[in-house]
Amino acid sequence: MNIFRQLPLLFLWIVNLPVSAQSPLQLTSLDGKIKFSFRLTKKAPVYKIMYKGKTIIDDSELSLDFSGADGFGTSLQLLKPTFIEVDEYYDLIVGKAKTARNQYREVSIPLVEKGGKKRRINFVVRAFNDGLAFRYEFPEQQNWSSYTLTNESSTFNVNGDPTVRALHWDNYNNTHEGFYQKNKLSELKAGDLMDLPALLEFPGRVYMAITEANLRNYAGMYLVKKNGILTSQLSPLQGQTEIKVKASLPHRTPWRVMMMSDRIGALIESNILTNLNDPAQTKDWSWLKPGKTSFHWWNGDIVPDTTFAPGANFETNKYYIDFCARNGLAYHSVIGYGGFAWYQSDAPNYGAVGPRTDVTKTVPSLNIEEICNYAQKKGVDIHVWVHWKAIYPNLDKAFSQFQKWGIKGMMVDFLERDDQEMVNIQEEILKKAAEHKLFIQFHGAYKSTGLHRTYPNEFTREGALNYENNKWLKEGLSPDHDLDVAFTRLLAGATDYHLGGFRATPSKKFKTQYTRPLMIGTRAHMLAMYVVLESYLQMVADYPEAYEGQPGFEFLQKVPTTWDETVVPNAKVEKYITVARRKNTDWYVGTINNTEARNVNMALDFLPEGTYTLEWYTDAHDVDENPDHLIKQIKTVSHKDVLTLELAPGGGQVMHLQKQK
């Protein structure tokens, strides 16, 4: 054992630096590739970032506006900065890595007003080898106890004219589910709301993703282009447009994160977002069980013909529980039936609550405790779907009843906001759920921000236009869209995507089906999505007869949902991506392709030494007409081998590598 691996390494030094406008303060990443500089001007604090000797963010102003035309940014004095260097390891309860390394240099820059209230704000910057992050910290002070923020003007004066990939909105209240737009920075419309993460690609294949980490007690951030410069735009509190955040001191903002690399795969491998979140306060998470789950709403509530009347009843749920038990799926989800929830409600459909909605009482046809008891006997756990308004604000009452019934977690849906109030509601849900030993799966919600380090019971988030849309979109979701999600939304973390559709069809034959939805990408593409996408509660969303006896289902039965290590051997934006993830000594490798056929060589040099048995699922040669067809091969390989991946249009490949004894 390396005893130094177990302990944080921290260096602290305080230095006397010139603080005039002519002498920038500087911070460099440990590998020397990222260089940050900061200086004060009469107008505002200004920062600049260089990557490998080239300016990637040019002079960018920083300011904060408070209610009453009260700003913070002009006439500031810079006090003595504090530098620290940290190198530590920490374990994640759930994540793409079991142990993450948190290695950075930090500078805390105290800024004080020269006159007036003489308020103090610390501007804190951390430089990692794979990115840079900053935030504002409001320490406790005599003349300032609270604030009302109307605008955070964190600007990103991007150098050059990179390609920008992001979701665009005209409203803050949105699902965060849409098609990604690709534009040159110069082509972006002024004032459009750009969701995060946003990926910027510079000439020479240098990549920067802008997002946020540790979003707590603050408003969610978007980007808008103002005067040619990307500028932060916060989601306002409901019912008005001016006020974004209300807080008491001490307080701090989320981290504004710029992930950077000349290798796109490094952004997916990065643990920078969890590095920037706080450790979990609760020590005992032994009750938490990541895994895969049924989700019969997606397939249209399909049950076998003639055996029993389908509905919100024991028999319908028993059918899916038995399927989960036979095939090693950890969870069955109780949702309801035919558009109506499992709990008592006078609302017209899933998407609403009524004045007499009561999540602590089931519909007359369903006994949830009976279902939980039966599932437990079969080795399966139950989680439920709920509308967020059905459980909030009386969370203790709802969660106490859930725990009494034997429910283990829930999908919380239709949140569709990221203002400060909603951000706090979601954290309150996570905190109360943890107290009652329940996990959470957020739907209709904003992107991940690394909070699963603090609350490991946050298993996944939606925040992406996913396969549920094949139930109603005329053309369905294409493999090209899957690649867009992998190179943007995935950078933020866990992405719930309604995986598991086992009825692929050529795109020319696709048609909308609310029940038994069709898929456009091949079955091998679908299998690979379980490795490519990160989610600690992956759906197996089709119905039992769609899976059992079908080629490739055996892979879904065994693929994990949490990982010990993640690497990206191959990736080309828009074209293809290969993600390799390790669980114990086994490796799972998934590759998805866009709609163009190609061959790609993949080195297995990420494997440790030794020989491995490779179970390899590839598209059959006739997938242009029969996209469900697979070829399964068994080979012996080592880290010295290079494999040729023959990728069909819309296709994929998936591998399971087991170390030989």
TrEMBL record:
<comment type="subunit">
    <text>Monomer.</text>
</comment>
<dbReference type="Pfam" id="PF14508">
    <property type="entry name" value="GH97_N"/>
</dbReference>
<feature type="domain" description="Glycosyl-hydrolase 97 N-terminal">
    <location>
        <begin position="27"/>
        <end position="279"/>
    </location>
</feature>
<feature type="domain" description="Glycosyl-hydrolase 97 C-terminal oligomerisation">
    <location>
        <begin position="562"/>
        <end position="658"/>
    </location>
</feature>
<dbReference type="Pfam" id="PF14509">
    <property type="entry name" value="GH97_C"/>
</dbReference>
<dbReference type="GO" id="GO:0016787">
    <property type="term" value="F:hydrolase activity"/>
</dbReference>
<keyword id="KW-0378">Hydrolase</keyword>
<dbReference type="InterPro" id="IPR052720">
    <property type="entry name" value="Glycosyl_hydrolase_97"/>
</dbReference>
<keyword id="KW-0326">Glycosidase</keyword>
<dbReference type="InterPro" id="IPR029486">
    <property type="entry name" value="GH97_N"/>
</dbReference>
<keyword id="KW-0106">Calcium</keyword>
<feature type="domain" description="Glycosyl-hydrolase 97 catalytic">
    <location>
        <begin position="297"/>
        <end position="464"/>
    </location>
</feature>
<dbReference type="InterPro" id="IPR014718">
    <property type="entry name" value="GH-type_carb-bd"/>
</dbReference>
<keyword id="KW-0732">Signal</keyword>
<dbReference type="InterPro" id="IPR013785">
    <property type="entry name" value="Aldolase_TIM"/>
</dbReference>
<dbReference type="InterPro" id="IPR019563">
    <property type="entry name" value="GH97_catalytic"/>
</dbReference>
<protein>
    <submittedName>
        <fullName>Glycoside hydrolase family 97 protein</fullName>
    </submittedName>
</protein>
<dbReference type="InterPro" id="IPR017853">
    <property type="entry name" value="GH"/>
</dbReference>
<dbReference type="InterPro" id="IPR029483">
    <property type="entry name" value="GH97_C"/>
</dbReference>
<dbReference type="Pfam" id="PF10566">
    <property type="entry name" value="Glyco_hydro_97"/>
</dbReference>
<dbReference type="InterPro" id="IPR013780">
    <property type="entry name" value="Glyco_hydro_b"/>
</dbReference>
<feature type="signal peptide">
    <location>
        <begin position="1"/>
        <end position="21"/>
    </location>
</feature>
